[in-house]
Structures are given as C-alpha cells and as structure tokens.
Amino acid sequence: MAQDINEQLEQTVLLSIKQGRWLAEEWEDAGIHPGKRLQVFLPQLLQRLKNGEALAVNDEDALDLMAEEIVDAMNELKPAYGDLARRRYV
Questions:
Q1: How far is CA 33 from CA 16, 47, 57, 66, 89, in A?
Q2: C-alpha neighbours within 13 Å on the C-beta side of residue 71
Q3: CB atoms within 10 A of CB 10
Q4: pLDDT digits (tens, 9 = 90+) for 40-52
Q5: Distance CA 18, CA 69 (A)
Q6: Helices 2-30 and 42-51 sit at what angle, rounded to 10 degrees?
Q7: Burial class (CB in 10 A: 0-12, 13-18, 19+), 45
Q8: Which of 6, 45, 59, 81 shows the greatest Cβ crowding within 10 Å of its Cβ?
Q9: Percentage above 70 pLDDT, the chain
Q10: pTM for this one?
Q11: Helix 81-89 with 59-77: angle, nearest 10 deg
Q12: Three-state secondary structure along 15-75?
C-alpha cells in the first residue's frame, strides 16, 4: 500500500515537473511580451521551471501574472477568447 502511494506521488511530481518545463518552453515560443510587473520575476521563474527546481516564494504571484498575460494574448487573437478559456479550463 505504501509503495503504491509512493509510486503515485513520484508520478505526480514527475508530471508536475514536466508540465512546468513545457509551460516555460511554450511561453518562450509564444513570444508573449510580459508587462513590467512580470518582467522582474519572469527570467528566474522560467529558469526554475526548465530546470525542474522548487519554486521560490514569489513564483506563485509570477505564475498568476503569466496567466493574466496569456489570457490577454488570447483575447487579442479573438475578443473574449482568453476569458472564456480561463473560465472553462482553470
């Protein structure tokens, strides 16, 4: 039983690390230009995500700012699309 839980935990952690890395890579590929508030935190956050490192205290705020930037970028592509996607999938 304990081994099953440990295996599940390991798989969950591995998936989280992979998804963080994918987020960092996709962010860079998308070419979204972050606002001034995010510019301060973004380079370190992206590096930690790519390296699979533990996040810093202020990274949660930076992730929230990234989400806002993604929604705004999607809204530019199609009005209200980013807002709809956020409500539906987050």
A1: 25, 17, 23, 10, 23
A2: 15
A3: 10
A4: 999 999 999 999 9
A5: 21
A6: 140
A7: buried
A8: 45
A9: 98
A10: 0.82
A11: 130
A12: HHHHHHHHHHHHHHHHCCCCCHHHHCCHHHHHHHHHHCCCCCCCHHHHHHHHHHHHHHHHH
Joined tokens for residue 25: 């890579």
How is residue 64 written in tokens?
């929230």
Per-residue tokens: 33: 């230009």
Query: Average pLDDT, whole number, for the chain?
Result: 92
Q: Alpha-carbon distance 49 to 67, whole Å?
A: 15
Q: State how far the alpha carbon of 48 is from the alpha carbons of 18, 44, 51, 55, in Å.
A: 12, 6, 5, 7
pLDDT at 12 over 80: yes
